[in-house]
Amino acid sequence: MRYLLSADYERVVSAIERFLQWKKIPHKVKRYEKPRMTKIKLGFTKSIVVASFRGKTFVKLPSNELVDVIAEFTTTASFGRPKDEVDLEIESELAKFKAEGAKKTLALICGLTLVATPVFVSRGQLAYPLILLAFAFVPIKQNFEGMEFYTFPVFYPYYVLKARRLKRRLKRRLESMQDI
Predict the structure, then answer these.
(1) How many CB atoms lie within 10 A of CB 175?
(2) Does pTM surpass 0.90?
């Protein structure tokens, strides 16, 4: 679950660390300066990410386990649903960036497949172009203004539709603000 908090980054990190120490949950902490981010590993697959981005604090939790800790801070947005224009603009930019990354990767995969198919079909080896197409299901690591996330090329249509929807919502919200 993702949360956007209007709280100080350091206070959020220290509250989460205190909770983990109090519950005696084994964890490893990694701190990054650029971007200002803290990753707390809770074993092999679970991790908590706290990042400072444009003056706000983003928290990504593995599930509902730490909601009590986050509840003491003022939540600006949760479940990826932004509450004001700035948050909506950030989500819109992220969706647009994911769509661009997925589009470029899909174009590369399709181009390689089109070039490789006649060569391998003439040799009777049709499996190789199909292996290239399978790369559309592999996640791509991207960076956006210091935030790191993964994009799946196969979800390109979803990313485009999400970017359009968020752009329309932002436009409507800005128009409604001008009417007031």
Answers:
(1) 9
(2) no
Q: What ranges do the domains of the chain cover?
A: 2-78, 85-179
Q: Distance between CA 32 and CA 29 in Å, rounded?
A: 10
Residue 160 is predicted with a pLDDT of 92
User: In the chain, what percentage of residues exceed pLDDT 70?
Assistant: 87
Gyration radius of the chain over CA positions? 21
The secondary element (H helix, E strand) that includes residue 157 is: helix 156-179
Side chain identity, residue 97: F
Dihedral sign, CA of 13, 93, 134, 129? negative
Nearest to 17 by CA among 56, 43, 52, 48: 48
CA-closest candidate to residue 31, choices 5, 45, 51, 46: 51
pLDDT at position 180 over 70: no
Give the pLDDT confidence score for residue 94 in this predicted structure: 82
The Cα–Cα gap between 35 and 37 comes to: 6
Whose tokens are 């800005």? That residue is 174
Q: Backbone phi, then psi, for 131, in 5-degree steps? A: -65, -40
Instruction: Give the distance from CA 52 to its chain's centroid.
Output: 14
| Phi-psi domain of 145 (left: phi exceeds 0; alpha: psi -120 through 50; beta: other) | left
Sequence-distant (6+) residues with CB within 8 A of 57 are 4, 5, 6, 7, 8, 9, 12, 50, 51, 73
